[in-house]
Design brief:
This is UDP-glycosyltransferase. This protein is of the alpha/beta class. Helix content is 38%, strand content 14%. It has a seven-stranded parallel sheet with strand order 3-2-1-4-5-6-7, sandwiched between helices.
């Protein structure tokens, strides 16, 4: 009698990066023939996931297939725009706004999304849960089911959940070798502006059965495994080692379709290195920032292929 397949439930944030990273891992697991991979997502992602062979468990009300839903990428960018994270301001102010956005997002997710995920987990009873989320869902942490943290963000931002006084706070653009007093100065400024909302977020997590967070942190690592994505050459482990439960991968995406890419003739026979440049789905949604970057890159001796955003 063949071995029963293990059920793996992916619960990513409903943003392009976490969804794509989860798809990449799910494809690898599925293709071994030993795992049945399922996704807990909103209707926006239903057709994409089903088209590549994954079963979807809906978070919220099912929308009929003939109803046109909003482009999820455009929705993601709009949500970030509304938060003020794309305005032209200082890195410090942007970091504070980013922290506020994440805390508010966490509180909203606990209220609106967590009950839906809890119902899916109780009905499905998966063997393992893989969570690519910037904030915790108590339904996952308290389920009693082994869960894996997947982190598709910049590895510097692992210190949003793993205590780290060696690297500078994320999002500020500070050099890795910044003086300790400089790092602490900025860390305290961010903390002073964000602490009131953060305490509300922490207390809500605790009231729902999650472990108490350390100050400054937004999540706690999984005791089972924590996966993150970055090429070894760009990682920070030579400066800040991580526990054995953390595992890095060069990428979370497989080759995907068999499309081929031909370098444009205008770039083929020119001097300089050929560089692919992307700010991801969020950064590239900032049109003014992209315009400034293209002007800067156009003055380089190198050649660039720039990934455009939805706008």
């Amino acid at each position: 009698m063949p071995n029963k397949k293990q059920t793996v439930l992916f619960v990513p944030d409903q943003f392009v990066g976490p969804i794509n990273a989860s798809i990449g891992m799910a494809e690898v697991l599925r293709d071994t023939g030993r795992y049945h991979c399922m996704f807990a997502v909103t209707n926006d992602w239903k057709s994409r996931l089903e088209s590549i062979g994954f079963e979807v468990k809906h978070m919220g009300h099912h929308v009929a297939g003939d109803v046109v839903s909003t482009d999820p990428l455009e929705s993601n960018v709009s949500e970030v725009e509304e938060s003020g994270l794309m305005e032209n301001t200082t890195p410090l102010e942007m970091t504070i706004r980013g922290n506020d956005f994440l805390v508010n997002y966490g509180l909203k997710e606990m209220k609106e999304t967590d009950p839906l995920v809890k119902a899916i987990i109780e009905h499905l009873k998966p063997d393992v849960i893989i969570s690519d989320r910037v904030v915790h869902l108590p339904s996952i942490i308290t389920s009693g089911i082994p869960w894996i943290l997947s982190w598709s963000c910049n590895p510097l931002s692992l210190n949003c959940g793993y205590p780290d006084d060696i690297l500078p706070p994320p999002f500020l653009g500070l050099p890795t070798n910044s003086e300790t007093e400089v790092k602490e100065k900025y860390r305290q400024q961010v903390w002073e502006r964000s602490r009131e909302k953060w305490y509300k977020y922490r207390d809500q997590l605790v009231s729902m059965g999650c472990p108490k967070l350390q100050e400054f942190l937004l999540w706690t690592p999984s005791p089972f495994a924590n996966l993150y994505m970055t090429p070894k050459e760009l990682d920070y482990t030579d400066v800040r080692p991580l526990p054995d439960t953390f595992h890095a991968f060069d990428n979370f995406k497989r080759t995907g379709n068999e499309d081929t890419f031909e370098i444009p003739e205008t770039l083929k026979n020119r001097s300089g290195k050929l560089i692919y440049f992307s700010l991801g789905s969020m950064g590239s949604g900032n049109v003014e920032l992209m315009k400034r970057l293209v002007v800067i890159l156009s003055k380089s001796k190198h050649r660039f292929i720039v990934s455009k955003g939805v706008k």
